[in-house]
Every structure is written in structure tokens, then in C-alpha cells.
């Protein structure tokens, strides 16, 4: 059964200081997938970024580091705390998945070009059958090293293009629900 891996859906991501973003419906899509996974009794892993940078919205003990209430873990759902974008680095996630025989991941969350992309790259490199749900992820506007501004949707699409076919298969929420239903 595929594992739903929910990345960095923390309160701080909802604050204006995070910047302009795309996919305003992403949280609703994540909540729907989470509900389906729970109804099926399928495995869910919640990933939370705990920053090492004082003043970060994800600094431990601050409200921004908490899970968004609608997407908060329930008893029995695994929680991974990370300090870098990749949810596999120094977290024990790979060991936890292998110990339970989980080889397929469905990744949702934020941000597409940062923690989602880093985690999906590692998952693919580690041999997990990895899916990234495009309409259940989002990105923020970004300025490149030349000083050119890129809208969040462009950043999102480029990150998905980087992943698709190489590290993961990019799908939509309907296809993710179908993956679960097929098991």
C-alpha cells in the first residue's frame, strides 16, 4: 500500500511572509487525500521542518513550526522532523519505511522546488516507487541568480519537470486516489 508523505504543512507556510504562491487549493487536496488514506487504514507520514536558524518561522517551539490543524497527525501516524529540505537526511525515514515493507510513496506538500523536490529525488535514488501529486503541492515566487523574478507557478512547473521520469512520476490527486483504491 502506498505511503502518503505530507511535507512541511506547517502553520508558518500560511503566513504572508512566506510570499506569493500558486495552487491555493493544495491544502484542500492534501486534506482529501489524507482522509482517503485514513479511511483505507493506509500509512501516513507527516514531515515537519524544524529550523536551525533563529528567527525562522520554523524555529522549534514557535507557532509557525506547528502542523496546520486540518492536516495534523493523529495517533499512530508517523512524524518525521527534519532540519534540511530532504526528509531522508538524518531522519531515519528510509529505515522506518524499509522496516515496514513500504516501497511506494505518494508525496504532497510544500514547497515543490525545495523540500518536495529534495525528498522526491532522494526517494527515487533510494529505489522507492515515487509519485509527486502536482495539484497537492505548491511553490512560492522566486528570483533567480540573474535577478529575474519567476512566478510561483513557473517555479512549481519547473520543479515538477525536474522530477518527472527521472526520480518520480508526477500525477494529480485523482490518480493518487486511484493508486490507493487499486490496492
From TrEMBL:
The organism is Pelomonas candidula
- CDD domains, alphabetized: nicotinamidase_related
Q: Where is the Isochorismatase-like domain?
A: 3-174
Q: What is the lineage of its organism?
A: Bacteria, Pseudomonadati, Pseudomonadota, Betaproteobacteria, Burkholderiales
The name this protein goes by in its record: Cysteine hydrolase family protein
Q: Which EC number applies?
A: 3.-.-.-
Class of the enzyme per the UniProt entry, highest EC level: hydrolase
Keyword flag Coiled coil: no
Task: Point out the signal peptide segment.
Answer: none
Which PANTHER family did the record assign?
A: ISOCHORISMATASE HYDROLASE, PEROXYUREIDOACRYLATE/UREIDOACRYLATE AMIDOHYDROLASE-RELATED
Report a single Gene Ontology molecular function: hydrolase activity
| Keywords from the UniProt entry | Hydrolase
Superkingdom: Bacteria
Amino acid at each position: 500500500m502506498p505511503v502518503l508523505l505530507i511535507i512541511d504543512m506547517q502553520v508558518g507556510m500560511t503566513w504572508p511572509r512566506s510570499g506569493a504562491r500558486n495552487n491555493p487549493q493544495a491544502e484542500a487536496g492534501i486534506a482529501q487525500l489524507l482522509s482517503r488514506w485514513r479511511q483505507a487504514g493506509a500509512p501516513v507520514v507527516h514531515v515537519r521542518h524544524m529550523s536551525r536558524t533563529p528567527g525562522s518561522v520554523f524555529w522549534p517551539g514557535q507557532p509557525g513550526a506547528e502542523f496546520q490543524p486540518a492536516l495534523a497527525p493523529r495517533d499512530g501516524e508517523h512524524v518525521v522532523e527534519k532540519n534540511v529540505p530532504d526528509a531522508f537526511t538524518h531522519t531515519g525515514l528510509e529505515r522506518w519505511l524499509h522496516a515496514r515493507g513500504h516501497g511506494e510513496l505518494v508525496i504532497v506538500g510544500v514547497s515543490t522546488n525545495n523540500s518536495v523536490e529534495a525528498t522526491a529525488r532522494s526517494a527515487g535514488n533510494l529505489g522507492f516507487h515515487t509519485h509527486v501529486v502536482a495539484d497537492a503541492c505548491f511553490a512560492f515566487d522566486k528570483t533567480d541568480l540573474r535577478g529575474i523574478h519567476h512566478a510561483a507557478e513557473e517555479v512549481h512547473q519547473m520543479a515538477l519537470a525536474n522530477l518527472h521520469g527521472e526520480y518520480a512520476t508526477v500525477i494529480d490527486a485523482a490518480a493518487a486516489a486511484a493508486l490507493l483504491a487499486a490496492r
